[in-house]
Write a structure and sequence with these properties.
This protein has about 200 residues and is of the alpha/beta class. It has a single domain, classed as TPP-binding domain (Rossmann fold, 3-Layer(aba) Sandwich), CATH 3.40.50. It is built from seven helices and eight strands; from the N terminus they run ααβαβββαβαβαββα. The protein has a three-stranded antiparallel beta sheet with strand order 4-3-5. The protein has a three-stranded parallel beta sheet with strand order 6-7-8. The longest helix is centred in the first third of the chain and has 20 residues. The chain is elongated and about 55 Å long. About 25% of the residues are buried.
Length: about 200
């Protein structure tokens, strides 16, 4: 963070890959989860994804726990103030200007958790609370190798929840699960929930 050039490189990479991410649309799996939330059958979505697709599928932000943050906006590292990306993009691409916080003049970066950054305390606590109170914990599309997120299914199982893993490939936690489905996520969830 102390190197302006490294920060510039980070923003260059962000804006170079943004176009691809911004073209992405919620898929059948996202829509099925949104339907479960709408029906009151899904308490929360704990996600490591940073693409904002759960929100775009119709899931209220209050039901989404983003462990690794969100790449669709930026925030100040000092005061946490949210900054939209369009003005940052225009200033950066126009004259290589690094963003600074409009409230406290702190460093602004994408609202994602970078290597070496602490996990977000509030989201981790919410994820733990949701896990502890779940009676059914469904893992969707995770290899279950990235911790601390990979520890939540194990915790849910220890607390008595049924564990379902839906993933294309086997995971190291399959033996602990009550049901494992190695199949396409969107098609599987769509059939289970009854949405297209």
């Amino acid at each position: 963070m102390s190197s302006d050039e490294m920060r510039r490189e980070s923003w260059r990479r962000k804006f170079a890959t943004d176009e691809t991410m911004l073209r992405a649309e919620p898929n059948a799996g996202h829509r099925a989860l949104a339907k479960l939330v709408e029906q009151g059958r899904l308490g929360a979505i704990i996600t490591q994804n940073v693409d904002g697709l759960h929100q775009r599928s119709g899931v209220p932000a209050s039901k989404i726990i983003e462990l690794h943050g969100n790449a669709t906006y930026a925030s100040c590292l000092d005061c946490g103030h949210r900054h939209e990306l369009d003005p940052i993009r225009k200033a950066f691409l126009g004259n290589d200007e690094l963003p600074i916080c409009v409230k406290c003049e702190g460093i602004v970066k994408t609202a994602t958790i970078s290597f070496g950054q602490a996990m977000p305390e509030i989201q981790m606590a919410r994820a733990q609370d949701e896990t502890m109170s779940s009676d059914l914990f469904i893992v969707v599309g995770s290899s279950l190798v990235v911790y601390p997120a990979a520890g939540f299914p194990q915790l849910a199982k220890r607390k008595g929840a049924a564990l379902v893993i839906i993933n294309r490939e086997p995971t190291d936690q399959d033996a602990q699960a009550d049901l494992v489905i190695n199949a396409e996520i969107g098609a599987t969830l769509s059939r289970a929930v009854g949405v297209n």
